[in-house]
Amino acid sequence: MNPTFKAACLQVNATTDLQHNLDTAMRYAVEARAAGAELILMPENVAMMEWGRSNIVLKAMPEDDHLALKAFRELAKELNCYIHTGTLHVLLDGGMVANRTYVLRPDGVAVAKYDKIHMFDVDLGLGEVYRESTTFQPGDRAVAARLPWGKLGLSVCYDLRFPHLFRALAKAGCDFLAVPAAFTKVTGKAHWHVLLRARAIETGCYVFAPAQCGTHANNRETYGHALIVSPWGEILADALEQPGWIIADIDPRKVADARKKIPCLDHDRPFAMPPKD
């Protein structure tokens, strides 16, 4: 198998209409596959951008019956490629929801699934407040998916602000990191590019960051700028602010090159923590 491949990240403006969202994502995936993508990654909340606990729980579905997961399984088979499903709202026993991502083989079988660990409970000011922990049950384990070209470490959106997760994934042998997101416009302008580049530089991994963009339910605004970043921190593709997709050539050998130049993953040393005041 050729060691290089093409990866594509989708950028969408998801609504509260499941079928509309699926049609859009699948159309972009078909276009990206026609351009040569062998790995296609979708953003957080790709199938649904609802607002409020009651609405999210009402439209979440059990894993075995999830219409979006079934559609993406068929899409992987139709396109004969690997598909990262972004995140889907999976209804759990007890009324909580998992913000869950899947990695599908070309035969539609899931080789990995991951539940978002870190909950976005923040107050950004001017009335923009998020409390994911009231609706979503956080995951409790790091996950990597084995692909033909290497290992893909999984994360979701707010996880990006917890660098120890990505370092752990890299030290577990990951060559690539997926960061599907619905980053707010406010935080995206300030931090999105620099955090994604930092995670790539710190780990020597490629970073794939599909994204939501535009205005959604309850006037929620997301930043866009789906990115593909090299292990050296270079931005290889940027989707800017409009829906669509980006694609880049990926050479896993550059992971080893970056880590050879700066082998910081091998340089951890124990240290004592300062006391808390």
Automatic annotation (TrEMBL):
Name assigned to this protein: Carbon-nitrogen hydrolase family protein
Superkingdom of the source species: Bacteria
Keywords from the named record: Hydrolase
Entries under Pfam families matching the protein: CN_hydrolase
TM ranges: none
MF term (GO), any: hydrolase activity, acting on carbon-nitrogen (but not peptide) bonds, in linear amides
Family (UniProt): Belongs to the carbon-nitrogen hydrolase superfamily. NIT1/NIT2 family.
